[in-house]
Each structure stands twice: as structure tokens, then as C-alpha cells.
Automatic annotation (TrEMBL):
It comes from Paraburkholderia fynbosensis. SUPFAM superfamilies: PGBD-like (SSF47090). It comes from the Bacteria. This is Peptidoglycan binding-like domain-containing protein. The chain crosses the membrane at residues 331-349, 402-420, 432-450, 498-518. The keyword Transmembrane applies.
Length: 642
């Protein structure tokens, strides 16, 4: 093309070539008539927005270069327009002789240093207007602030990083990096400019197609559905045409300069609009398998494709597509990301278990209500053990938390893999959302039900801990056996939940990331998963009220201990109903009945604690619990010497 820039109102062959280029890139400028009208302006603005250029509707050098109409995107130098007359209007109070004398050296210096673009020229002139409006050199003048006593003039400015030298150095290095990047991009665009010739060679056996590509006949818009097309995966391209049931079409896709060519796997009518240019039921969705490259890097690279529509053995339409293609290797980045998230999660759990209770626990981790066990500290193997992330309030593995953890990691990894491959966040099927909802809600409900059903009241739990009744218990953490056992009993409700959850998880993995939007679980399977959650919660509710009975017994034991301590403090005793007897007793009979009643309750509570909580009771500590003033209560009167 001869013209370096075009604007509204221009006409001729250059405008006609511009219209064809816009049509080839999928931006319809209207009739190809060689007139730069509103249709071209609208198409240019849309194209400039897609290429992140200034959307001004003008076909300048950068827009022309992006359309492959010119070989360079270099803007015309504005130096020619910077004349003495123009600058004198910007410096009305400056003698014109100074401008004539000093403007040429200024412009020459800008050209020599390759900073002669319009913004830099304007900034240079603005600085001169503000600092030296006379437009002639002015010496700063030597002083003790810029020149040392025995140094050369202005030597105090040398190597002064605090004056900006270090910043300028960093900016220069950054500029070099940016220029290198632009150079690489320019090389890739130059390589893409050879596409048209390669397409002619590729389609040389079809004169109709060659003529159509040259004259833009039969051209239709087409684009990639996702930001990147996955190589060796389900690449989807939308093509602006309708399927003809009376005269079925065949679609072919070609890629220049490649031995292995893409394959169109299937074609279907779009059921939803991809964007404004591709409305539903008026476009065709092509499922394409793109051959991958042997190299691993770069993970994303730009490729050109020619899509051809044929019917009855005759050429009908064609489209040109430029799209980024992702390497199959990029999909495996989900693995280090998932492993990192998992290790950070286990590390956070390990840190929470290192909250040491000082002095009283002698280095053991503090028990946390409602658990009666100390949390087990992490061993090296525990950092890679997923069961550690499923601990409930009792330091046991929760099957519901395991279910949520499993589905979250599987779905999250698949979504991440697909995003890395296509650059687009995929939709999730309604079945998958229901599956995650069932597991999440089931985990929350079962956690609340199990905790409320199997925990002691806070007062009784604190009383046992304060009196060290359960102090000698071993540390405990979640174990795999907790997923199928409850109180040393095989739990079929847990087994049912695990079996169906694992079955669905395996199906989800085998179906792959590409089918997350269409993944379906049979309705009966969803019902079974929901019922398994209901049955599990129901199983908790119908269990014998052992913990509730123990809680009542401990409350009664605490009351007896309180009565025993009070009777001993008042030198009295209690009657058969446990009420304090008025007055005082002889030293031999003080609190005899109160202690006997407390001992009887201790004897019945010990087996209840060991059976319900599955812990061994420190019987001596339990019998000595009712203390007064730090002294243990006296032994039974039957053992005292009279």
C-alpha cells in the first residue's frame, strides 16, 4: 500500500485494500467500494479496540501495520513540522533570532538520541519555555554545591545515585527489555505477514478458493470461542454461517507451513450467542483437534488458520483466524499449584497445633473444647497426609469434611487446568453445583449434629480438665480408620457416604476438565448421595443418649463434690437426701455421709466416662477433686484410728 495513513473522506484503491483487510480480520466495513465512510470508521474503531490501539477511527501507521498493509508501524517523524515559525508562536516573548540559532541543534540532538517523537519534542519545548524562555544556553554557574574545591567543574554531580542516576539506569534497563519484547513481537508479526502467500500455496489446487481469498469473495467472520485454543484438545471455533440440512456442508481447516493439519471433528449450530457478531442459531460451532508442537516452551504461541466451507463438492465460503494456541504442557501446571495449596494447608494446621499450654501441660498441646484428647503434633509424614485436614472438634477424621476436601480439590484442579489451557473460566454444570452443595451442606449439618449430640457441657468438660481427671491421656489426631468407625463400632452410614462419593469422584476425573460444563450425575445417584447425608445425620440422632446421661451424672457428681467440700468446711454432714445438717458434728463424723455419697457417685461415673469417651480415668484425681484450701480431703472415717 502506498498511503501510510488514511482517514474519513479518502477514496481510491488504498481504501479498497483497507476494506478487504478489515473484512479478512473479521471486521465488516460494509460494501467494498473504495470510499472511507462511517462503515470503515466503525470497523476501524472495533479493530483498534481489539488490538489495544487508540480507537480514533483513523487508519494510521500502527493500525495499518496491525492489518498487515504496511511493513513498519513507525510513525512519521514530526521533526519536519517543528519550524521556527511554529516554535515562535509557542515562545511569543522570545527573540526569533535565538530560536533560529538554537532550534536546529536541539532537534538534531533529539534525532541523534532517537527520542524525536511528538510527546518528547513537546516536553522538551515545554521545559525550555519554563526554564529558559530566552531559548539560548544559560550556565548554571559553579558553586560550592556543584563543584568541589579542587575538582573539575560540576564534579559533585558525578556518580550521584541519589540525584537519579540509579533510577535512570534502572529505567534504561527496563526500556531495553521492553524494546526486546517489541522486537520479538514485530518478528512474529512479520512472520504472520507471510500467511497470505502460504495460504495461496496451500490452496493452489483450488482456483476458486485462491480467487476468493484474493478478491475477498465468500469471506465470513470466524473466531476462537476461548482466549486460547488447546492443542491436542477440544478447540472450538465459531463460524458465521448456517447449517443447511438440505445441502449438508463440510468444513475443512488448514494451517500454513505445517505437515500435520488440524481436523474438524464435528459441527453444530450454536445455541447461545458467542458475542454480538455471532448470534445464536446463525452460526456454526466447530470442534477442532489441533496438532501440537514438540517443543514445551512457549506455553502460548500465535498461529494462523484458514477455515473453508464446502457443499456438494464446491467451495462456498472461507474465513481467516488468528488465535493463541496453548501447549498441552500448560495443563500440568495445576499439579504444582494444587500441591502448594495442599502443603500450605497442612502447614497451617501444624502451626495451629503448636500452641503449647505453658507449665500446666508440661509441653503438651492444650486440649480444646469439646475434645478430651490433646491434639497430636505433626510428624514429617503428616505433612503429606490429607486426613490431617479433615479433623473435627474431637480431633477425629470427619467423613463429611473428607468428602468436601476431595470434591474441592478435584473440581478446583480441573477448573484450573482448563483455565490454563483455554484462558477462559469455564461454566459448571448444575449437577456439579448440586454435588458440591450436597457435600458442603451435609458436612455443616452433620458437624453441628454430631458435636451437639456427643459433647459434654462446657462446665463439666472444664471440671474434668481442671481436676486432671483425664490428664494422662495420649495425644490424638485424625486417622484413616475414623472414616468408617464410630466409638469402636463399624459405621455403615459412613461407609455408604464414602462409597458413593468415591464413585462420583472417579467419574468426574475420568470425564476430564473439558466436560465440566456438561458433567451429569444420574438423578438417582444425586438422591443417593443426599439420602446418605440424611441417613448419617439420622444415625447420629437415634444413637443411645450415652453422652447426655454422662453429662447429667457429671453434673450430679459436681454438686456432690461441692456439698462434700462445704460440709467439711462447716464441720457438719449431710442427711440421706444430701442436704446439709444444721449445727456442727464431732471431728470423727464430719462429712462422713457426704463423702460416702460422693464415693458412690464416683464409682458409677468412672465406667460411664471410660465407655462413652473411650479414655482411661485417673481415679485418684477424681476422688480427690473436692479439695478445700489446697488440702486433700481426709480418708473415710472407717480407716481412721480412734
Amino acid at each position: 500500500m502506498d498511503a501510510q495513513s488514511l482517514r474519513q473522506g479518502d477514496s481510491g484503491d488504498d481504501v479498497r485494500e483497507l476494506q478487504r483487510a478489515l473484512m479478512q480480520h473479521g471486521f465488516n466495513p460494509g460494501m467494498i467500494d473504495g470510499e472511507y465512510g462511517q462503515g470503515i470508521v466503525a470497523a476501524i474503531i472495533a479493530f483498534q479496540s481489539s488490538e489495544r490501539l487508540l480507537p480514533d477511527g483513523l487508519a494510521g501507521p500502527r493500525t495499518m501495520f496491525a492489518l498487515r498493509l504496511v511493513d513498519s508501524n513507525t510513525l512519521p517523524s514530526p521533526i519536519a513540522g517543528v519550524t521556527v515559525e511554529v516554535v515562535s508562536r509557542m515562545f511569543p516573548a522570545t527573540p526569533i533570532c535565538n530560536i533560529k540559532a538554537n532550534l536546529p541543534p536541539l532537534l538534531s540532538s533529539l534525532l541523534t538520541n532517537k527520542v524525536a517523537d511528538k510527546p518528547i519534542i513537546l516536553m522538551a519545548l515545554a521545559t525550555l519555555r519554563a526554564e529558559v524562555e530566552c531559548f539560548e544556553p544559560v550556565s548554571e554557574g559553579q558553586s560550592r554545591y556543584n563543584t568541589s574545591p579542587s575538582g573539575h567543574p560540576f564534579d559533585l554531580y558525578d556518580n550521584r545515585r541519589d540525584l537519579g542516576s540509579a533510577i535512570l539506569e534502572r529505567l534504561f534497563l527496563a526500556l531495553l527489555a521492553i524494546l526486546s519484547l517489541f522486537s520479538a513481537l514485530s518478528s512474529s508479526r512479520a512472520a504472520a505477514a507471510e500467511t497470505s502467500a502460504a495460504l495461496e500455496r496451500l490452496c493452489g489446487e483450488n482456483p476458486d478458493l485462491v480467487q476468493a481469498t484474493r478478491e475477498m469473495k465468500g469471506f465470513v467472520p470466524a473466531t476462537a470461542v476461548t482466549n486460547a485454543l488447546p492443542a491436542e484438545g477440544d478447540a472450538r471455533i465459531v463460524y458465521r454461517t448456517r447449517l443447511d440440512s438440505a445441502n449438508p456442508q463440510r468444513f475443512h481447516i488448514f494451517e500454513p507451513n505445517r505437515a500435520a493439519q488440524p481436523i474438524v471433528v464435528s459441527a453444530e449450530t450454536t445455541t447461545s450467542a458467542v458475542n454480538d457478531n455471532f448470534p445464536s442459531n446463525e452460526s456454526v460451532l466447530l470442534h477442532v483437534r489441533l496438532p501440537g508442537d514438540s517443543h514445551v516452551w512457549p506455553l502460548f504461541y500465535r498461529r494462523d488458520f484458514l477455515v473453508v466451507e464446502c457443499a456438494a463438492g464446491q467451495f462456498r465460503s472461507w474465513a481467516m483466524i488468528q488465535a493463541y494456541v496453548s501447549s498441552p504442557s500448560v495443563a500440568y501446571l495445576w499439579l504444582p499449584v494444587s500441591v502448594t495449596v495442599f502443603l500450605l494447608s497442612t502447614w497451617a494446621v501444624s502451626r495451629s497445633r503448636k500452641a503449647i499450654l505453658k507449665v500446666s501441660t508440661d509441653g503438651k498441646l492444650a486440649e480444646k473444647y469439646p475434645s478430651v484428647f490433646s491434639a497430636k503434633q505433626f510428624k514429617p509424614i503428616d505433612y503429606i497426609n490429607p486426613i490431617q485436614l479433615t479433623a473435627d472438634a474431637f480431633n477425629q477424621a470427619s467423613v463429611q469434611k473428607f468428602q468436601v476436601l476431595m470434591f474441592s480439590f478435584i473440581v478446583g484442579s480441573l477448573v484450573l487446568s482448563l483455565v490454563l489451557r483455554t484462558g477462559t473460566l469455564t461454566d459448571l454444570s448444575g449437577t456439579l453445583v448440586a454435588l458440591l452443595g450436597i457435600s458442603g451442606i451435609g458436612a455443616a449439618v452433620s458437624q453441628v449434629t454430631y458435636t451437639s449430640k456427643t459433647r459434654l457441657s462446657f462446665e463439666n468438660w472444664a471440671w474434668l480438665q481442671a481436676n486432671r481427671v483425664l490428664e494422662e491421656q495420649a495425644e490424638r489426631g485424625p486417622q484413616w480408620k475414623d472414616l468408617v468407625l464410630t466409638n469402636r463400632e463399624f459405621d455403615v452410614y459412613k461407609l455408604q457416604t464414602i462409597v458413593f462419593s468415591v464413585a462420583v469422584a472417579v467419574a468426574l476425573v475420568l470425564d476430564g476438565a473439558a466436560h465440566l460444563a456438561t458433567f451429569e450425575v444420574p438423578p438417582t445417584m444425586l438422591q443417593i448421595l443426599g439420602l446418605s447425608q440424611v441417613v448419617f445425620v439420622g444415625g447420629i440422632l437415634v444413637r443411645p443418649p450415652a453422652t447426655e446421661d454422662l453429662d447429667k451424672a457429671l453434673t450430679k457428681l459436681r454438686d456432690a463434690a461441692k456439698t462434700y467440700s462445704e460440709a467439711a468446711a462447716r464441720n457438719t454432714d449431710v442427711d440421706e437426701t444430701g442436704k446439709l445438717v444444721p449445727g456442727t458434728q464431732s471431728p470423727v463424723t464430719v462429712a462422713v455421709h457426704a463423702r460416702r455419697q460422693y464415693e458412690e457417685l464416683v464409682g458409677s461415673v468412672i465406667p460411664m466416662i471410660e465407655s462413652t469417651l473411650e479414655v482411661e480415668v485417673n481415679e485418684a484425681a477424681l476422688r480427690e477433686a473436692p479439695m478445700n484450701g489446697g488440702a486433700f480431703l481426709r480418708p473415710p472415717v472407717e480407716n481412721c484410728a480412734v
